[in-house]
Amino acid sequence: MKQIIAPSILSADFANLQRDTEMINTSEADWFHVDVMDGVFVPNISFGFPVLKAVKKYAKKPLDVHLMIVNPEKYIQEFAKEGADIITVHYEACTHLHRVVQIIKDAGCKASVALNPHTSVSLLKDILVDLDMVLIMSVNPGFGGQQFIPQSLNKIVELRKLANETNPNLLIEVDGGVSISNIESLIKAGANAFVAGNAIFGASSPTEMIASMKNIDIN
Ligand code: DX5
Ligand code: ZN
Question: Is the ipTM above a cut-off of 0.95?
Fold first, then answer.
């Protein structure tokens, strides 16, 4: 399977959201990555349902919704209703993670859990079998354009090993500081889905950057 590329619309031009959505539609990107921040779980506020709706109106690819919010279980049904295909909640934001994962699945979405840089992948051992994807945060969540934290690479290797035992089809997504210069090592480590904001929207040709990321072949 070729890697999944998910441009983060957090780095899009919000005054030209339709244009940037069309750019992703016509590119080789696979998903739209949608970062929802509440100013409580993370020290920043991004956007909520109105922006999700606006993207959904034009998006022709799945919406990969990353909830950086407390009490995500309160909003899952509404995110599903507004068009989320994959919903990621943070391990650190869920006391009853197993229940939250079931709520995501019952809402008809793929279930994913994100880990902050300080959270060990071993904590997911008993729930891995229930997940479609794990998102490894390779920066501290809250802002686009930050530097990749190198230790994230070891976490991907460890998670891939763990997944091989119980859930070999698990998708491993990496989010934060992903670029054309580190994506190859991340694929080799065992990740297969990549979020990129700054690397894509800051490129002179976002479409070409997406194609370059999509077509890296490690074999
Ligand atoms: C950060 C968000 C990321 C962000 C990535 O909290 O979860 O999705 O948009 O942006 P870059 O690729 O610029 O690090
Ligand atoms: Zn994200």
Answer: yes
- Would 127 be classed as within a structural domain? yes
Q: Does residue 176 have its Cβ closer than 6 Å to ligand 1?
A: yes
Q: What's the domain range around 143? A: 4-214
- Measured in angstroms, how far is the CA atom of residue 178 from the centroid of ligand 1? 8
User: pLDDT (tens digit, 9 = 90+) per residue, 113-134?
Assistant: 999 999 999 999 999 999 999 9
pLDDT band at 219 (very low <50, low <70, confident <90, very high): confident
Inside any domain, residue 219:
no
In a domain, 140, yes or no: yes
Question: What is the distance in A from the centroid of ligand 2 to the CA of 64?
Answer: 9
83: its two tokens: 């068009």
CA distance 36 to 148: 20
CATH code at position 52: 3.20.20.70
**Calpha distance 196→28 (Å, rounded):** 13
pLDDT > 90: percent of the chain: 99
CB 147 within 8 A of CB 182: no
Number of domains within the chain: 1
